[in-house]
Amino acid sequence: MRNRNPQLNSNGELQHLLTLDGLPHEVIVSILDHAAPFTEVAEREVKKLPLLRGKSIFNLFFENSTRTRTTFEIAAKRLSADVVNLNVSTSSTAKGESLLDTVDNLCAMQADMFVVRHAASGAPVLIAQHLQATGRDHIHVINAGDGRHAHPTQGLLDMYTIRHFKGDFTQLTVAIIGDVLHSRVARSQIAALTALGVPEVRVIGPKTLLPTEIEKLGVRVFHDMSAGLRGVDVVMMLRLQNERMNGALLPTPQEYFKVWGLTSAKLALAKPDAIVMHPGPINRGVEIDSAVVDGAQAVILPQVTFGIAVRMAVMSMLAGQ
Amino acid sequence: MQPLDAEALCLQLAEQIRPHLKPDTVLVGIRTGGLWLAERLHKLLDITQPPGAIDTSFYRDDYGAKGLHASPQRTEIPFSIEDAPVILIDDVLYTGRTTRAALNEIFDFGRPASVELAVLVDRGGRELPVAARYCAVTLPTPLPSAHTLQLERATDGSLNLRLIDA
């Protein structure tokens, strides 16, 4: 069993969700299938299911993120779990406690699941391996974003959104646009799109924001936005990280918008029924024009709604193992 | 066990329900067999409101032991449950656990005026205090637990009860 995918148990069921890279096609499809009935819960009088009653879920955020933490919190609460939010960046680690000591302490408080965000790639994998090595297989880990590595639930909710609006993956051309270099979201998207059989995935961006040799992931690279957008079915924008704006990688936000911002004129090069996605938070007037955000082709808010259902599905599948 | 004619049982069940229908009675079928039966009763009884569909996967009491159902489907109740006289419909009544799960789920949509249970077959083997108000046939002796009795629907829409001896 040495070569076993660390995310799957010996029956091939999902034990942790750490990355979409290498996750079997049927597991990804199964998560999307499971998410569908959860979307209906939001329309009920009582927006709550009893599935995770009595389970304790710890949101372990070593890096700030109000939005992702909130969607995980809502998903867990709609499943009736008890949710504890730990902003670790401002607590124990500041006093010198190591990552695994923090985890052990929370396990001693009968944690059933950890939702982990960390600036270091691989932190959630480290926690999962630690739990396995110490015989605590009943505790599950969900990666809520680690460094530049992966953000699997974002990738899954993006796939759910594409499937909702486009149906079949095997006829699509999808473009991912912007700061791929710093983006864990882009890596998860590429892994999922490839696994689901999308024949053409394009990445579009300035040379300074595309990792070298990204072609090896099976994508087509474009440094010309107009050429890259021509005929695509799905436009996936990435957030331009303002905090990196001062480095030598980029000109000013205004100049970036001029060349790489998605405007209605550029979007017109895509198929007429193309959808526009964005993981949020949006920088209006930097990577995307307000008119596109508020336009008929944008599905950015449905992405948020579907994100809750997808996270509910992942949590229920894990906790049921 | 004598063979069960699902089509004839449907007609009997409809006639049991008919005298008790209220103008605002709504039907809710438990997926999958109960929903087929609800669709049939909806036609036979000339009820205007199309039946609601319940999938009890998210309310089952064996989630802790068995995990999530392999392919849960949507619960779709396209009308208000609040103050409605509800007839909950399932194909086969067995332990009563599915009925319990469905009742809990219905109450998350509102407070119904009443809930009655209608089933095609009562196979015995109850583990909870559940009884059907309307029931086309009660088996004289409970089916052994190794047996599965379920409703099937052919491509032409006809219903058939199938006994699987595991």
Fold and architecture overview:
The complex is a heterodimer of chains A (321) and B (166). The longest helix of chain A is centred in the last third of the chain and has 20 residues, at 300-319. Chain A folds into 2 domains: 25-150 and 306-319, Rossmann fold (3-Layer(aba) Sandwich), CATH 3.40.50; 152-304, Rossmann fold, CATH 3.40.50. Chain A has 321 residues and is α/β, with parallel strands linked by helices. In chain A, helix 1 (25-38) packs across helix 5 and helix 2 crosses helix 11. Chain A has helices spanning 25-38, 66-78, 99-107, 123-133, 152-166, 184-195, 225-229, 253-260, 264-267, 290-293, 300-319, and strands at 56-61, 82-87, 113-118, 140-146, 173-177, 200-204, 220-222, 234-237, 275-277. The model of chain B has no long low-confidence stretch (mean pLDDT 95). Helix content of chain B is 23%, strand content 27%. Chain B has a single domain, classed as Rossmann fold (3-Layer(aba) Sandwich), CATH 3.40.50. The two termini of chain B are 15 Å apart. Chain B has 4 helices and 7 strands. In chain B, helix 1 (6-17) crosses helix 2 (33-44). Chain A binds chain B through residues 13, 33-34, 36-37, 39-41, 44-46, 48-51, 316-317, 320-321, and chain B through 55, 57-59, 63-64, 66-68, 71-76, 81-82, 104, 107-110.
